[in-house]
Each structure stands twice: as structure tokens, then as C-alpha cells.
Specification:
This protein is about 30% helix and about 20% strand. It has helices at about 5-10, 20-30, 35-45, 50-60, 135-139, and strands at about 35, 65-70, 75-80, 95-100, 105-110, 130. The strands form two sheets. The chain has a three-stranded antiparallel beta sheet. A hairpin with a 5-residue loop joins strand 4 and strand 5 (about 105-110). Helix 1 (about 5-10) packs across helix 2. The protein is globular and about 45 Å long. The protein starts with a helix and ends with a helix.
């Protein structure tokens, strides 16, 4: 098991459990790709649904992962970058969903454009999902 998982959990004041380490290791192996709850459940069959759900919630609250809305209604989760912290996400990048393989990826270098809100409106979060064909499917 990767020592980076222990470091991340301790740095975020989370107890180090085998389930948390395994789930975090799965995210670290994804290389900017997002995971659905079902993907984690399928990959780590020894961990029950409730534990996965609670772990995802704890990771999101601590700024370890962020959620990405899916067109199918199922949220996807991806690792946050170093700028995120407990309750303060700074994931202002575009997310890309491949229409062939259904993979969702964070495009860290492509930022969500500023949206000018009409008078009387105050935005607290802006999310942008772009659909198309990913690099892997194009080759």
C-alpha cells in the first residue's frame, strides 16, 4: 500500500483505516480520471456500499476529492489539487466526459470562464462539463 495514502489521511486529520487507504489508492491510480460510487464498489468488492459512501463524503468535506455532476445523474469523484482544504474547494477547471468510453477527466489547465451574473444574483459555484471524444478513443 502506498505511503502517500497515509500522509494524505493524516494531513487531513482522518483516521487511517484499510478501507480509506484502499479507496484513496484507487483515486491515486486514476491519473485525473473520475470514479463513480459504482466503479469503486466494483473495484473494491471487500468494502460495503455504506463505507464507500461515508468515505467519499469525508474525503469531499476535507477537500481530498471533489464531485462532478454526471449527465446520468450519478456523481463522479476526482482527486482535488493541493489548493483545496477542509470546506474550501478550488476546482475551477473544466471536466470532460467522453461520449464513447464514458470516462470523465479533470482538465486542470482549462479553467471555467467567468460568468457575469445579473443584478441580484450571486454565484457560489460554477461547474463546466464538456462532452466529446477523448484522446484515447480518438487513437
Amino acid at each position: 500500500m502506498n505511503d502517500a495514502t497515509v500522509d494524505i489521511l493524516k494531513r487531513n486529520s482522518l483516521s487511517v483505516t484499510e478501507s480509506r487507504r484502499n479507496i484513496l489508492q484507487l483515486f491515486l491510480q486514476q491519473n485525473a480520471s473520475a470514479l463513480r460510487h459504482a466503479d469503486i464498489e466494483q473495484s473494491l468488492q471487500s468494502i460495503d456500499r455504506v463505507t464507500i459512501y461515508r468515505t467519499l463524503q469525508a474525503f469531499a468535506e476535507k477537500g481530498i476529492i471533489h464531485s462532478i455532476p454526471g449527465s446520468d445523474g450519478a456523481a463522479r469523484y476526482a482527486l482535488c489539487k493541493d489548493g483545496c482544504a477542509d470546506g474550501h474547494h478550488h476546482d475551477d477547471h473544466v471536466h470532460f466526459v467522453c461520449t464513447r468510453c464514458n470516462a470523465t477527466q479533470c482538465l486542470d489547465d482549462v479553467h471555467v470562464p467567468f460568468v457575469r451574473m445579473p443584478e441580484g444574483f450571486e454565484a457560489s459555484k460554477t461547474e463546466m462539463v464538456v462532452s466529446g471524444i477523448c484522446r484515447k478513443c480518438r487513437s
